[in-house]
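ingest -> validate -> predict -> emit
validate: passed (alphabet ok, no gaps, 395 aa)
predict: started
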Amino acid sequence: MRKKKVAGVFMSMMLAAGVMAGCSSSTSGTAENSGGKGGTIKVGANLELSGGVASYGQSIKEGVELAIDEINKKGIDGKKLQLVTVDNKSDASESTNGALKLITQDKVSAIIGAATTTDTLAEAQIAHDNKVPFITPSGTGSVVTVKDGKLNDYAFRTCFIDPFQGTVAAKFATNTLKVKKAAVLIDSSSDYSKGLAASFKDYLKKNGGQVVSEEAYVAKDTDFHSQLTRIKATNPEFIYIPGYYQEVGLIVKQARELGLNVPMLGGDGWDSPTLVQLAGKDALNNTFITNNYSSGDTDPKVQAFVKAFKAKYNGKSPDAFNALGYDSVYFLADAIKRAGSGDPQKIEKALAATDGLDLVTGKMKLDKNHDPIKSAVILEYNKGEQVFKTKVNPE
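emit:
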């Protein structure tokens, strides 16, 4: 473990030195991309392809590759997109290293990724310092684009943000499920989990609800019986669990075993086939998630995407991370076309000016913080399958 850590630190130092010495080389890479050596524009993908949340990164990559295949059939003003992928291994330091490599060595014009808020934040300053835009498909934390009150001009996202998602969850609990007494179980090591929980509790309390129990765990925990036993003693009508699928699957399973049969709800972090494997189909009945998209949405654009995805991936139904990866590439391609260039700084300005772009996960309009104003969907698990429940529009 120590040897691996030292090697990682050495690698980061070497790559960081490349940034300091290589900002001018990045500029020459910009010229190459804008001119289109070989008629291509390089796009990086910094994704969690292994490690704790590999399901997210792998799904995003599938959506990205489908979009690039489609776009390259026609090209963008005669140029094609060339994808360069790095695996950040679901680790923040690896995400930093991956961004450094993509920018200083591969000379990409923009980066897609990372998937989680933590891994995305790890590349944010690198992208800003080198003036290369990045688009996170699913990094929902508000701090990705605005930190300490300051906008990162080169940070963009395709997903909605945590405060909106947490508020949607609370609205659904109070207005649709008609519950008032909620328990909250969060991952105290996750900015994502804490952010959703904060907005959920705020809306619930302002609208006559009560948080009767609040418990916490940390990522990679596997035994949640103590927290769940304390929650059960408070007789909640509902449990909000804004975590990631690895722990949530076990939490749901153990909760049902303890006789906690109340409705449960979480965020897009639940969205993985592995969740069903961990929790079991029956345990997931009467659980719900907020998400960016549903394959059951009858919108023609959604159904066209579902058809194309199934054709490419042997009948597999696309999840929200597939859709967000796909939309991120179309978001970028639209900006490249309007910029008329592969120059990262011109692409950044075009991305910021996006207004009304029609994508699979909704119309893309950015606010002043580079955050999309878009709808959310509520999905219900029924025998292990996600069923489209309703769509919630921003106010």
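The domain at 162-291 is CATH 3.40.50.2300 (Rossmann fold).
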